[in-house]
Amino acid sequence: MSSATPRPNDARDIEEITPGWLTDVLGYEVNSFTSDRVGAGQTGASYRLALDTERGAETLVAKVAAGDPAARGGVSMGYAAEVQFYASLRDSVDIHTPDCRYAAIAADNLRFTLLLEDLSPRRPGVQAEGCSVDMARGALRNLAGLHAPRWNDASLYTLAFPMTIDNAEAAAGLAQITEMAAAEFVNRYAIQLGEEDAATLTAAAAAVGRWVLASPQPFALLHGDYRLDNLMFGADPQDVVALDWQTISVGPPARDLAYFLGTGLAVELRRAAEKELVAVYHGELLRRGVADYSLDQCFADYRLGQLQAPMITTIGCIYAPRERSDASDAMFLAMAKRSLRGDSGSRHAGPVVAASRAYPSWLGGSRA
After folding, report:
1. Phi/psi at 214 (nearest 5 deg)?
2. What residues contact 117, with CB distance under 8 A and at least 6 apart?
3. 336 with 314: CB under 8 angstroms?
4. Overall pTM surpassing 0.90 (yes/no)
5. Average pLDDT for consecutive 10-residue bins of the chain (368 residues)?
6. 8-117 and 123-362 share one fold
7. Which of 72, 186, 200, 315 sits 20 to 30 Å CA-CA off 23?
8. In 3-state terms, the chain is what percent helix, strand and coil (to 5)?
9. String of DSSP letters for 152-179
10. What is the pLDDT of residue 132?
């Protein structure tokens, strides 16, 4: 996979993309093209471009900013993070992503343009429907390809991006955002959640300020939003490609693991299969060279990471610039309700209990 070089003055919205501009950035003649909206991104918009070029017909996917300037301002750091991932981080990891033909972002970070490989006939996962255990195996093997190459790599902390929460001030800021989002989420979906899930979600949000600093090692480059809607699956469930890199961060890698399992599988299916699936991920880490990391430790980190799912779900729901719809409501509710139910060791409690049993020092409780 090749990296693209950012060209800060060349970022364009979809209506500004022309055959002449495509000719300039691709390096060969583009005579004409058509575009169709694809995907269900919450902070960006993707379009399949069918190109008529001097080399024949081809397709690419253009990803651009979405929403009005005020909405974009709230997620502009994510735009910058995604462009940096494709421009300078992609080649340092081994996760399957689309080839990037071009990457640019405006100086104010309110506009960006990515020209990416068209991954069809692969199809996206459907968050509201969930996935099979076999699909989860493929997704977790792919995830290990992100984490293992930069496992405990201190140079990650020298980068402008990705985001790092490693001090009390930053943790307090994240906690405030999370509690506000959770309160609005509970207010919006009170009937669908019910009292028990609403209380669990509120408790999870209240714990984020302490949780986010609980386990500084191991650390790696994280996707941050590794879920079904951000993955493309081929006919073989092991053929998995990851998209949407706006939430990259440095932190405990099992947060990605817990987020995917917590939001992607039906609750009883996850409880039945999670030990096997965590072992699949752990085995792939070892195969890729990670050492001195036991399966027991990996499972404890998975349990600690379970607060990632309600946190990202509520923040994404409340602050995403995309207009609310029945489909987005169904997606966010499915993610929240799945992730608020405990793992196989804490069936009748939520992620706070699972995390405190894995790491009792940060919130009290006895390790289970």
Report:
1. -70, -35
2. 60, 61, 98, 99, 100, 101
3. yes
4. no
5. 50 89 94 88 83 96 85 83 92 96 91 94 92 96 98 90 77 93 95 91 90 88 94 94 93 96 93 96 98 95 92 89 82 91 55 60 46
6. no
7. 72
8. 50, 15, 35
9. T-GGGGGSS-SEE--SHHHHHHHHHHHH
10. 95
List beta partners, residue 240.
Answer: 233
Q: Give me 205's structure tokens.
A: 């949000």
The torsion angle over the Cα atoms of residues 339, 259, 172 and 72, rounded to 10 degrees, is -110
Paired tokens of 55: 């080399």
CA dihedral sign of residues 93, 94, 95, 98: positive
Q: Where are the domains of the chain?
A: 8-117, 123-362
Per-residue pLDDT at 212: 87
Beta bridge partners of 46: 38, 63
- pLDDT confidence of residue 364: 44
Region 123-362: CATH code = 3.90.1200.10
Residue that has been written with the tokens 């502009």 in this structure: 76
pLDDT score of 3? 47
Residue type, 20: G
Homologous superfamily assigned to 8-117: Phosphorylase Kinase; domain 1 (3.30.200.20)
Cβ pair 113, 223 in contact under 8 A:
no
Angle (CA) 175-177-178 rounded to 5° is: 65
Q: Which positions ≥6 away from 244 have C-beta within 8 Å?
A: 41, 44, 82, 225, 230
Residue 264 one-letter amino acid = G
355, 306 Cβ separation under 8 angstroms: yes
User: CA 113, CA 20: separation in Å to the nearest integer?
Assistant: 15
Please tell me what DSSP assigns to residue 6: B
pLDDT at 334: 92
253, 151 Cβ separation under 8 angstroms: yes
